[in-house]
Write a structure and sequence with these properties.
Oligomer: homotetramer
CATH class of the largest domain in chain A: Alpha Beta
Distance between the termini of chain A: 66 Å
Number of strands of chain A: 9
Largest sheet of chain A: 9 strands, antiparallel
Strand content of chain A: 35-45%
Number of helices of chain A: 7
Number of domains of chain A: 2
C-alpha cells in the first residue's frame, strides 16, 4: 500500500505552517494541592509540514492525545499547561519531518467560592494553556508556554453613575448634603468576562487559582451562584462603590499583575482581554492590551 | 434508475412525523408600510412520511424554497409569516404522500429606534414565524400560523433594590427623609431577552412591529445603540424606577397583550419566554407562560 | 425588610407556568458499574408560580443545586436522571406555593470505544435527563422522568450511491459483471447526530450506555478518534455497505428500541431526532418521530 | 458635569492597545456590478488609549457606525472593505488622543450558483474585511486593509480511498482490471470550510467573488442547495476524482492565488485556513498558512 501522506504533493509544493486536529474533547485528571480534579479539555494540536510532503500523519495526533490522557488517569498531571508541554514535545518526536509543534487547550474549571463561609458553591471559570515545541538540532526542543484563565464577574459604569448623580441631584437637592457624598448612585452594571494570559520563559511558573484571584480583584465585583437577599444587596453596593470601565479593568489588572507576581521576570509577557455585556446596549464593549512585564514595569514607574 | 425514496423501507415500516431540511439560509424581500426590507431567514421545513415509503423527496424542499425566495425579489412578500404559509401549502402539494407540512423561520430584523429624535439608530430584533398545513381531503389544506418576535432590553431587580435601600439607610440615615422616598436606589441590572409569540386562528392578524413595541413596554427599559451621557443616565434612572423580576416581565407582557390587542379572538394563543442574564450571577434566570387569550381574559377579570 | 417576592403583583395577577434558573453548570459524580465518573452538567430548573405571588425564591434553586451536587462528591449519584428526580422533589418541598417542579440536565459523557481492542479511546456523547414532580395533595409528588443520549456517527446516502452506480456503469460497463454486484460505490457521507430519549413510567429503567449502543447501531457506522489506515478504510467500506437516509436512521432506531428493550412497558414513550450534516449541501437534513412503545409495537406487528 | 472619560486614571496609568465596541450588527447596502445587495455585518471597532486618559469615548463609535451605515442606504458602498476603511479613518479623527483605529467586519453573502443553468440557487458565503488607520503626523493616516471570504465546500480523503482500493481489490480481484483503473473508489467525504484573506498594499484590489471562486476551485467540489438525483451523483463522483487532504486544499489554494491574481504585488500577504469536519471522526482536521505573495512566488518557482 502506497504511503499517500509521505508522497510528494501533486502540484507545486508549499511549506504549510500548521496542520493538525481541532475540537478534540478529552477528560483529564489534574492534581491540585488538596485534591484531584477532572477537567474536560478541548485540544487543538498542529505541526508544520515541509513543501516536499503531501500530508501529515494526523492519526498520530489522536493516538498521542489518547495516550497522554490515559496516563493522567493513573497519575494525575500537574496542570493543563504541563499536559500541553508533554504533548507538544511528543508530537515533535513522532512527526520527524516537523520543525514545530503547537498545542492549545481550554477547559472549564470549578473553584469553591462564596460571599461568606456559609455560602460556598462551585463557580465556573475557564483555563487556557498553550505549548509550542521548536526543534533545536540534536538538543531537546525549545519550549514556549502560555497559561491563563477567564473569569466572569461584574462591572458598574463610573460615567453613567456620575451623570445620574447630577441628574438626580437636580430632582433631589438633598443629595448635595455632605452626609450623602458617599452614597452609591444607580448605574448600569453587567456581566464582564476577563481573560488574563501569561507567556512564561523557562523556569517561571504561576498558579491558575492565583490568575483567577487577580482577575476578580480587577472587576467591580466577583459574582456568586448563591446569594441570599442581604448578600445580593452587598454585592450590588460593593460593585457601585468600585465602578469600572473596561479600560479600568485592563489597566487595574495589569497593575495587579505587577503587584501580585513580583517574582515573574521582565521577559514574561502578559495579555489582558475584557468584555462587558453592556446592560444599556445590545452590543458589547471591550478592551485589551499585551506587553512584557518589563514594559509594564517601566511604564508604571 | 430505481426510485430509492419511493421504495418500501428495508425493515418494518414506521410512520415518521417529520422529515425535512434545516439550517437553510435565504435572503428575502418583505414589504413594510413605507419601504422594502431584506431579511435573511433561517428555514426549517418538514413533512410527514407514511410507513410504506423509504424516503422523502428532500430536493423538492430546496427547490421550492429557492422559487419562493426568488419570487419575493420580484414582488416582496407581505411578511415572514406569509412566506411560511406559502411554503407549507406548496410543500403539501409537492409531497403527495404527506398529510402535514411544517415550516419554521427566524430572521434578524432592524427597526430605527432611539431615546430621542436626534439619536435614532437601527436596533436589531428577531422575527419568528411558523406555518403548518394539514391535508383536508379534497378541500384546501387547513393552515395554522404562529408569528412572534424577540427583543433584548434591560431589567433592574426590585428585590436587591429594596434590600439595598434597607442596608444603605442603616449607613445613610438621611435616606429616611421623605424627600428621598422616591430616589432610585442601586440594584443589579442586565440584558433581558424576551420572546412573544402568537398562534393565530384564520383571519386574525398582528404586526411584527406591534409585537416588538409590546415586549419593550414590559421590560424595565428598552436599550439603544446611541446614547450620549445624559441619555445613558436617563435610561439607567428609568430602568431603576421600573424594576422587574422575570416574573414581572412575563406577567406584565401578558397583560399588555390583553390591553394592546383587544381585537384578537379568545382562541388566539400567546406564549411569553423571558431570560435575564443576571449581572450578579454567572447563570440566567428565566420565566415563561403560554395560554389562550380567553384563558388570560378570564384570569385577569 | 419587606418580602418582595411574597408580595402581590403590582398589576393584574397571572399564573406563570415556569420560573427558574438556567445555564447553571455543575460537576457531579456518578457511579458507573466499575468506576466513578465526573460529569459536568448544565441544569435548568423551574417551578410554577400562583397568580397571587409576585416572585419565586430563586436563590433556593441555586442553594439546592449546590447541596445536591456537594452530596454526590461524598456519595456518587446513580445517574444524571436520579439527580434530576432528587432536585425536582426537593424543589417542590422548598417552594411551598408551587404545584410543579421541572429539572432538565445535559452532560457530556465519555465511553471507551474503538474499532478494535488495541485502538480504544474516549469518545464523547451527550446525556440528557429530565424530571418533573407534580404535587399530589398529602401524598408524595408524582414523578415523571425522561432519559436520553445523543451520539455522533456517520451516514452514507443510499440514493446518491444508486445513481452513482448507474452513471459509473455507463462509463465502466465492467461494473455490470456479477462479481462486482456487491462492490460498494461512492456516495456522499457525513456526520450524523442522533438523539434517543425515553419518557419512563414509574419502575421502568434504562441504562445510558444501552441507549448509546442502540443509536450507534442505527447509523451507517459509529465513528472513532483513533483509526489507523486500514481502520479508516474499514469504517468507510462498512458505512457504504449500510447506507442510510435520516429516515432510515429514525425508523431503524425505533425498531432497534423494540428489539433491544422488550421489557419496557407499552406506556413508555420514545423520541428520536436525527440530523445529517450533508457533505453535498451547506444545510442539514433531519427527521424525527415520537410515539409510545405500545403504538410502535402495534405498527410494527 | 465632570468628563469622567477624559480624567486621569485612578491608579498608575497604562497605555491600552485596543478599546472599543464589538458584536454590533448593522445592515448595509453594497453596490455589485449589476445590483445592490444588503449585507448584515457584525462590526468590531477599536482605538488605542494613552496612559494619561481614563476612558475612550465609546458612544462616538456607535454614532459613527450609524452615520456610515445610514449613508449607504442613500449611496451604496463599493464594498465591505471600503466601509471599514471609511470607519477607521473617521474614528481616528473623532478620537483625537488615539494613534490607531481598527475595524473588523464579517457579513453573510449570497451568490447565485448551481451545478447547471437550470439549477441555480443562492448559496451562502462569509465576507471578512479589516481596516487599520495609523496616525501619521499632519499627513492623512496610513491605511492597512484586509479582505477575504469563507466558503463551505466538500473534501474527499485521498488516503482512505487508496486503502479502500487495496482492501476492496482483495475482495473483488476484478478491480485489478485496467478498465477499472480510473473507477472512483469509496472514501470519507465531508463539509470543508475554507477562508482566504488578503492584506493588500495601497492600490492593490481584489473582488470578493473572485476570492470565493478561488476557494471553491481548491476544494474537492463546491456544494449546492439544489441537486436533482443525477446532479447529486455527479457532485459525488467529481469530488472522488479530486480527493483532497486539508493540506492539499491549503497548498492548491496558495498556488491558485498565484495563478489567478498575477497582478497582485509581492508585498500582498495571503492567509489560508481550512477545516474539514471529518465524517469518520467526531473532531475536525485543519491546516493553515500565511505568507507574502513574494514568498510564495519564490517557493513555487
Amino acid at each position: 500500500m502506497r504511503d499517500v501522506h509521505a508522497s510528494a504533493p501533486e502540484g507545486r509544493g508549499q511549506l504549510l505552517r500548521r496542520v493538525g486536529v481541532s475540537t478534540i474533547r478529552k477528560p483529564l485528571s489534574i492534581q491540585r494541592k488538596d485534591r484531584v480534579v477532572t477537567l474536560t479539555a478541548t485540544f487543538r494540536v498542529a505541526v508544520d509540514l515541509p513543501a516536499s510532503r503531501k500530508g501529515s500523519d494526523l492519526s498520530r495526533n489522536a493516538e498521542l492525545l489518547a495516550e497522554v490522557i490515559d496516563a493522567t488517569a493513573l497519575r494525575p498531571a500537574a496542570s493543563l499547561e504541563s499536559v500541553c508541554v508533554g504533548i507538544a514535545t511528543d508530537l515533535l518526536s513522532r512527526h520527524s519531518y516537523a520543525t514545530e509543534a503547537e498545542v492549545d487547550a481550554t477547559a472549564e474549571y470549578f473553584l469553591s467560592r462564596g460571599i461568606s463561609e456559609g455560602r460556598q458553591s462551585l463557580e465556573d471559570y475557564l483555563l487556557v494553556a498553550q505549548a509550542r515545541a521548536v526543534r533545536n538540532g540534536a538538543e531537546p526542543p525549545q519550549i514556549f508556554r502560555a497559561i491563563g484563565a477567564e473569569a466572569v464577574g461584574m462591572t458598574a459604569c463610573p460615567c453613567a453613575m456620575e451623570t445620574a448623580r447630577t441628574l438626580l441631584t437636580e430632582e433631589f437637592p438633598l443629595l448635595n448634603d455632605p452626609a450623602l457624598a458617599k452614597l452609591p448612585i444607580v448605574s448600569h452594571n453587567q456581566r464582564n468576562r476577563t481573560r488574563l494570559t501569561f507567556e512564561l520563559p523557562p523556569g517561571a511558573d504561576i498558579e491558575a487559582d492565583a490568575i483567577i484571584d487577580a482577575i476578580e480583584s480587577a472587576q467591580s465585583s466577583p459574582t456568586y451562584a448563591i446569594l441570599k437577599r442581604r448578600d445580593e444587596a452587598t454585592v450590588v453596593i460593593n460593585a457601585h462603590r468600585n465602578p469600572k470601565f473596561v479600560e479600568d479593568v485592563v489597566r487595574d489588572l495589569l497593575n495587579e499583575v505587577l503587584r501580585r507576581f513580583p517574582e515573574l521576570p521582565d521577559a514574561a509577557r502578559v495579555r489582558v482581554e475584557t468584555t462587558s455585556e453592556e446592560s444599556i446596549h445590545k452590543y458589547d464593549v471591550s478592551a485589551s492590551h499585551a506587553a512584557t512585564l518589563g514594559e509594564l514595569r517601566s511604564t508604571a514607574a
